């Protein structure tokens, strides 16, 4: 198990800000944490990384209790840039991370090049722009090649080239087995990174209700649409007609197989399948309709 959060509740005085969060991640994934301001994303990440205590529930990370000091080597957390020291250089920050994580300093140059900060590595952080600070934060959390990477708003201030580079790095880490949980308000960038979104609202995860929302739309072209309509109607499988030869189908991957089997069993030839992802923004709109209309 990579992450297991059971009934996590967090209060600030009388305000319950996390209302019983449950998460289970058992194989590497990229998960986006999306929700309105104040919905509890940062609080959840801080509780998971033991930066904040909580009143109820428990958290396990990589099979260990989240307070286990050994996790420090395998888990990284990108927080906001207030953790940086203006008087120190980027190199100083990375050297510090190397010394506490027991990593060879020779990795610094490599990671600086990877995130694109080699030209200002030796400059003091107080002279960095917002985006430059984000580059440094990214370098600090990937230098140890973590098994779990948590990120709170990593895209703040990044220009399109840097955002693209960050995406490339995150996808490479994921390919090498890192699980990434990233909170972000940038829904376009989320769409490019992952289709797994945990929506948060008022301290609760709306993940479960997502099953009711189609994540993908399939446009399926067939050789005999009239016959296809008849067999689908007979089987009570819903669809839409998108053009003369094309059926639209909004469902999960498993049910797509039923749709295809139904056509195959009736000798209807599928000549093309186009997948249209239902984007994070549309899913956000459906979940937060009330807030958006008020
Ligand atoms: N130190 C604190 N003391 C009291 N309440 C707090 C504290 N930090 C956060 N909160 C409250 O906890 C709730 C969740 O805040 P949190 O920062 O986790 O939300 P968020 O989803 O990360 O928001 P944003 O998208 O704006 O970053 C909010 O109601 C906030 O006011």
TrEMBL record:
Keywords of this protein's UniProt record, alphabetized? Answer: ATP-binding, Nucleotide-binding, Transport
- PANTHER family found in the cross-reference section: ABC TRANSPORTER ATP-BINDING PROTEIN ALBC-RELATED (PTHR42939)
- Higher taxonomy: Bacteria, Bacillati, Bacillota, Bacilli, Bacillales
SUPFAM superfamilies from the UniProt entry? P-loop containing nucleoside triphosphate hydrolases
Q: This chain belongs to which protein, by name? A: ABC transporter ATP-binding protein
Segments forming domain ABC transporter: 3-227
Q: Which domain of life is it from?
A: Bacteria
Q: State the SMART domains in the record.
A: AAA
GO function terms (MF aspect): ATP binding
